[in-house]
Amino acid sequence: YGKNRPQCSPLPNLTGWDCRAMVARV
Q: How far apart are CA 20 and CA 12, in angstroms?
């Protein structure tokens, strides 16, 4: 539950990707 979660920033799509989208893909 920790490794599958990428670096999520307080702001959505800050790095160019969506945290939720990445987690869903993984």
A: 9
In the chain, the number of structural domains is 1
Does the pTM surpass 0.85? The reply is no
Assign 1 a pLDDT band (cuts: 50, 70, 90). very low
What domain range includes position 18? 1-26
- Distance (Å, rounded) from C-alpha 26 to C-alpha 7? 13
3-state secondary structure of 16: coil
